[in-house]
Amino acid sequence: MPSALPDGEPVPADGALPGSALAGAAARPLGFYLHVPYCATRCGYCDFNTYTATELRGTGGVLASRDNYADTLAQEIRLARKVLGDDPREVRTVFVGGGTPTLLAAGDLVRMLGVIREEFGLAPDAEITTEANPETVDPAYLATLREGGFNRISFGMQSARPHVLRILDRTHTPGRPEACVAEARAAGFEHVNLDLIYGTPGESDDDWRASLEAALGAGPDHVSAYALIVEEGTQLARRIRRGEVPMTDDDVHADRYLIAEETLGRAGFEWYEVSNWATSEAGRCLHNELYWRGADWWGAGPGAHSHVGGVRWWNVKHPGAYAAALADGRSPGAGREILSDEDRRVERVLLELRLREGVPLSLLKEQGLAAARRALADGLLQEGPYEEGRAVLTLRGRLLADAVVRDLVD
Questions:
Q1: How far is 359 from 389, CA to CA, in rounded Å?
Q2: DSSP string, 380-407
Q3: Which secondary-structure segment (H or E) carries 289?
Q4: Span 339-396, pLDDT tens digits
């Protein structure tokens, strides 16, 4: 089941932000994340805030229906306009995620985007992305999205091997994600991503190489590759606990990451974030870079998180409760926190170290600088950037990124 929300102070009923959050806003990029919480089935490894029809039955009534979800989400976008007041920024990025956004009609996704365009305006070069399940789209669906303003799409491929997909409880047919890339290109999408997962129980090195080669053969300009994390409360965690499938260890994850780096690099992809590779700077996911660089984004939808000017808040999780709050004219926010300068410094180190450009050494305190010197000596940071005042991970450092960043934030 979905993980729990964090604690925090109450969100005002009208969603108002403190004046400090809007100070200097015009100088920061603004993005929107639109969360679609519906899935046809629940994947065994997933603990995202998503719901199947069976899970929603009798718990939200008509308010939780995906048939009117676009109208419900539009109410929060209009609330965002009121809260941000005369903020002059056009929206730089929109990312529709889930769940399975493409369980909604293509016209619904286009209408949601249209409300953002009407209320805020879209920057001329705005990046507009949706995630998609390969089995829920066809050429006509993709054409509607493209005509409606979407210019980037991310398909959940995960693996090319049927037995790996079965362990993950993925329902798409092997080969379908690759076909979707061709269909998206034909519809006019400039940028296409494929998501992959490595380290699934029962996956071999050869299985992982085959998945990478299949993905590359499809011709995307972006690949995301994530180590499988077994979250408590998921079906996969229960299967591992019962001994039905083995747990994959960290050494295997490291080996698979090295295979990914070598295979993708040989095909002309360069890493720009620890788990993300693109064929060019234009192929990077600008929306995710907003997160990694601490910019502003409004997350609309059940359980969605937002950040504006050092204020972070999150919505109630259940689609019924979310819709009910908006129908009553209230913010769906469940809690918020106002980040201190130290909080924001720590987050910059945590997130920016994962980027190819790294993090300025000037953000580190004395103990963090000492840790950076040790990391440099241990071959975890690159020498050239270090001499120029930045901590940038080496390939070995990327394998140990979580440990390196823990030392640097001290």
A1: 9
A2: SB-HHHHHTTEE-B-HHHHHTHHHHHHH
A3: helix 286-292
A4: 999 999 999 999 999 999 999 999 999 999 999 999 999 999 999 999 999 999 999 9
